[in-house]
Amino acid sequence: MGDAKRRKQLGLMPTVYPFEVEMDRDGTLTEVVMPEGEAQRQQIATTLRQLPSGAQWDQFYRTDYVSAGLPEERLITREDVEKIAVPPRRRLVGELATWPAGNHRTEPGELKVADAEHAWLRLRSQQHAFENQPWQQFPELENTEEWLGYLFQHPALQLEGEVAGRYSAEQSADGQLSWTPEPPQEQRAALDDLARRWHGETPDDWAAIHAERLGEEDSASVSAPQSLRSAFELRRPSPLRSFLAAPFDLIGSLEVFPDAAGQAYSLDGQTWQDYPVSEPDDGEDFGDFTDVETFSATVWEGGRMEWPVESLDADAAQRLTADLLAYTGADDPAAWTSYTGGVLKSFYELEEDGPLPHVQAIKISVPNDLYEDEEGSDSFEAQVIEDEISFDGELWHDLYEDLPDELSDAALQEQE
Fold this sequence. Notes:
single chain; alpha+beta; five-stranded antiparallel β-sheet; 11 helices; 17 strands; globular
């Protein structure tokens, strides 16, 4: 007897209620298949309203579009991202699962049903469609580094949302909470809840979070503060969702970010000390993209290429030649100008329209094992990266250093 069947006979499996709904951009639901019970229907509808809508849906869709490797050009500005059309319709298929106490088995992507201790929502399928168009679904990329690689190709990933408000919360250990400046009344309750969760909702949490922010593992090793002060920024959604600087919470359509430089504590309620500000981890949790052995390939405007002869065998060298021609547009003046212009604007964050000097050659880092283990490997463009550029074919400029003189002159012309 299989494990699932045995668990079902023992009453250890959940009661499942399938559903299918459609959702528009604003989050309005249209029921297609729903349980008969009103309580289950309400649980499903309420939980699905946790999903992004409005500007958040635009952001989530465009991020998924980019991480699937679909853009044909590098995205630099907010306007570049906003050119990606967002479908107004979604189809969500899944099930409400109510588990016997103590037997829930966590699954990726589950949504917890509020005010129901043992109920979760599983989304089995999420599709999207434009008006009068068939349903579509993004391909699933099993390799996390592949879709992150697609995202990191686009400087627009670093763009932040417009600041809509900034508030500082001061809370005492007995729970009293005040704000400077006073937030709008319609945001006050949500901000109060957010600040209490950020500071710690119980005395134990309050002490543990304080110790953690001081870099201490044991809360007993430090004195618990009498008061905490925290600053929060409310921003409109950024063009693309960042996995390295995700918002702490949402209030309406606004993303909430704690300001690391605005965090302080007081042991006596009068004298304040700033918490230490830690350096960002630069995505260490997602793997080290720089810890790869590479060689440098030089690509010239006319299609000539150079790299260490011992780096590749004859077959791989032929493949690299074809891949670099397709990637850079070398030997095709219009494609080369488009590619090199995109590189310059990407690395130096230049405006979209403006004069740029002509590029004669570019150096690209290529992984040594590019063609060795291709099963499940990243796409070509996700594995190579530009390093240096030359405007005259002799003097080389590091793309990770300051603007070269030729480009500074072009940038000055652009500002005139």
